[in-house]
Amino acid sequence: MSDHSASRSAARHRSLPRTLVRIGLGAALAGAGISHLTVARDEFQAQVPDLLPVSPDTTVLASGIVEISLGAALMLLVRRQVAVGWVVAAFFVAVFPGNIAQWLHHRDGFGLDTDTKRFTRLLFQPVLIALTLWATKALGATRSRDR
Q1: Where in the sequence is the domain holding 128, given as residue range(s)?
Q2: Cα–Cα distance measured from residue 121 to residue 124, given in angstroms and rounded to the nearest whole number
Q3: Residue 111 has what DSSP assignment?
Q4: What's the rounded Cα separation, in Å, for the pair 135 and 19?
Q5: Are the C-beta atoms of 11 and 35 separated by less than 8 Å?
Q6: Residue 3 resides in a domain
Q7: Which helix H or strand E contains 94, and what residues bound it?
Q8: 48 assigned to some structural domain
Q9: Structural domain tally of the chain?
Q10: pLDDT value of position 126
Q11: How far apart are the two ends of the chain, measured CA to CA in Å?
């Protein structure tokens, strides 16, 4: 095996975990989006902050379409994964107030029926953001550009 093909093989091996996480996040987003439009529509309305100027149902439907689109983009737009990673991370930041509203207003949904469960869920949003940026190499691409 030549040095060039060995390094390509090593690079593929190192990127496999990122690819699996990226695909997993994309599938989870698309699945969540589909459930926004179908079986969990009422559950998702519990997370919509009161301050939004549109109805909770409209918010849930729109965010479902966005989630399906972002999930598909994560899985399919490999050559644009850095840009998609930043957009998905921004989306996770944008929906975080809904998670906070669910906790602050003591709204049940998705088995989050205590303040402790709702608060614990808040801790996972930064993990989703970090995983997205890692899986799409978004942070590495930014650091490489800065050098």
Answers
A1: 9-137
A2: 5
A3: T
A4: 7
A5: no
A6: no
A7: helix 81-104
A8: yes
A9: 1
A10: 93
A11: 32
